[in-house]
Design goal:
CATH superfamily of the largest domain: GAF domain
Structural class: alpha+beta
Largest sheet: 5 strands, antiparallel
Distance between the termini: 67 Å
CATH architecture of the largest domain: 2-Layer Sandwich
Strand content: 5-15%
CATH topology of the largest domain: Beta-Lactamase
Oligomer: single chain
Strand order of the largest sheet: 2-1-5-4-3
Helix content: 55-70%
Length: about 250
């Protein structure tokens, strides 16, 4: 289905080709401007990807959509529009193969026109077809640092994704890539600030209890962290909660 069809025939009937093209361009520009505002206003990673999948349902010819993010080299599923997508993702993540895994690993767009005919992942295709999905389009979410995830689009109709759909999916993926990377960076910074606060409070407890300076208090926390193979943040949290350091030998 082309972009003009999704706009509605009544919107373009009787207008010259140039006017139609101009109208389509305005619709696309306005639509993605709205998306950019929604993504910018999202509070975190989960809210960001949820906005992406909901927008995909509005802007693209798909029955379902989902986003899988790369975490330590492995995909996780933070947002889907239907439980069907969750099942599709889980099958691939459990088996370690399929279009989602390959798109994330190879940083490539993968189009499956018909799961009934595609022979690249026969077992996966059979399972997906059993859920009523016939077309799949996986687009990587990439930044300068690499692939941060994959946008997955699914349709119950064969050969559902045309050139227009793929072009819009790539634009959406670029918006999503930047938004996800930004949200993750902000989340990491917030965690780092929280960790510093916890360590500072724990150091204060040690300094008051044992009459030591800040450098010595930090050395004590770091030693316990290393000896017990526990994150420094968690050692600090335990000391604050229990007023005791973790057991270690």
């Amino acid at each position: 289905m082309g972009l003009d069809e999704r706009m509605g025939a009544g919107d373009i009937a009787g207008r010259p080709d140039g006017a139609i093209a101009s109208s389509e361009s305005r619709v696309v520009a306005d639509t993605f401007a709205r998306l950019a505002q929604e993504l910018h206003g999202s509070a975190g990673v989960e809210e960001t990807v949820q906005a992406v999948v909901e927008f995909a349902l509005q802007a693209l010819n798909c029955s379902y959509a989902g986003v899988a993010l790369a975490t330590r080299g492995r995909p996780e599923v933070p947002a889907v529009t239907d439980a069907v997508v969750g099942e599709i993702y889980q099958w691939q993540m459990a088996g370690g193969h399929g279009p989602l895994v390959e798109s994330m690993r190879e940083h490539s767009t993968i189009l499956i026109r018909d799961t009934a005919a595609d022979e690249r992942w026969p077992d996966w295709s059979a399972k997906v077809m059993s859920l009523g999905v016939r077309s799949v389009l996986d687009v990587p979410l990439t930044t300068a640092a690499g692939t941060v995830g994959v946008l997955g689009l699914y349709s119950e109709s064969p050969d559902a994704f045309g050139a227009d759909d793929e072009a819009v999916a790539h634009i959406l993926a670029r918006h999503a890539s930047v938004a996800v990377a930004t949200a993750r960076k902000e989340a990491n910074l917030a965690q780092a600030v929280d960790a510093r606060k916890l360590v500072g409070q724990a150091m204060g407890i040690l300094m008051e209890r044992y009459g030591i300076d800040g450098d010595r208090a930090f050395d004590v926390l770091r030693r316990y962290s290393q000896d017990t193979n526990t994150k420094l943040r968690d050692v600090a949290q335990q000391l604050i909660d229990t007023r005791r350091l973790p057991e270690h030998t």
